[in-house]
Amino acid sequence: MVQSEVINVSNLDLTFETGDGPVHALKNVDLKVNKGDFVSFIGPSGCGKTTLLRVLADLDEPTAGEVTVNGVSPREAREARAYGYVFQAAGLYPWRNVAANVKLPLEIMGYSKEEQLKRVKKVLDLVELTGFENKYPWQLSGGMQQRASIARALAFDADILFMDEPFGALDEIVRDHLNKQLLELWKSTNKTICFVTHSIPEAVYLSTKIVVMSPRPGRIVDIIDSNLPSDRPLEIRDSKDFIEISQRVREGLRAGHSDE
Fold first, then answer.
1. How far apart are CA 87 and CA 34, in angstroms?
2. Residue 1 has what pLDDT?
3. What local confidence, expressed as pLDDT, does residue 257 receive?
């Protein structure tokens, strides 16, 4: 079966100009992401994982190279509302309840009130927040706030979801639960997901493809295609295949450091 290419990055470089001089954030990055992939980006702090995600989302502009999202430039993809973006912090407005936070992009896009209600109901059900529509962010746990943030990114039904360490600040038990929920959501919606993480177990558990990055300037050290089955109970982390993939990720991270 021919896979449909959604993201293509070719020879990407990015240098930031700062008061202390130029910072070379990304170097010679080449990457292809196919429709329905779950791709995790992992590497040390400051390696450019989030910067790469922001380039794909047209939040940062590369210095050199080519990037296409759905066959067009990141800017055109953004204007076509091709993706949703989930940030590290949930970023919910405290004066809006859950339903009002989730429907905000729909209001901005001019959906009818009837369509807004329909979509809010659908995505809150997807992230298991039905019954919490009238709660305010301060009444929710950290994990529930992030689920509301994911629902907001899903509300306008974009095919691509960019996620920047959405579970990084949560404790391990909550994180495991949300990883499992996110995997189920991905399987049920067939979205293409690009996910930034510092956690090797999280990257291996969630992904069809793991992109290992070096310290700054961020380069791709390894791209690992996962052979894990699509049905992944948390116990799969004790399996031989899971441990082998995790070890390859660790080796890639070590190799990236040794190339400094």
1. 22
2. 46
3. 67
* C-alpha 134 chain-centroid distance: 27
Does residue 123 contact residue 188 with C-beta atoms inside 8 Å? Answer: no
Report H helices in the chain: 49-56, 74-79, 98-109, 113-126, 142-154, 172-189, 200-206, 240-258
Cα dist. 61→47, 57, 87, 202 in Å? 17, 10, 18, 28
CA angle 132, 135, 140 (to 5 degrees): 85
Residue 170 CA to residue 154 CA, distance in Å, equals 21
pTM of this prediction?
0.90
What is the mean pLDDT of the segment spanning 102-107?
A: 94
* pLDDT value for 259: 56
Helix (H, G, I), strand (E, B) or coil at 16: strand
pLDDT tens for 53-86 read 999 999 999 999 999 999 999 999 999 999 999 9
Give the side-chain half-sphere CA count within 13 A for 18.
Answer: 9
* Residue ranges per structural domain of the chain: 5-82+158-258, 91-157
With respect to CATH, is domain 5-82+158-258 assigned 3.40.50.300? Answer: yes
Dist. CA 198–CA 249, nearest whole Å: 11
Cα–Cα dist 77/91, whole Å:
23
Please give the Cα distance from 136 to 139 (Å, whole number): 5
Residue 81 — left, alpha, or beta (φ > 0 → left; ψ -120 to 50 → alpha)? left
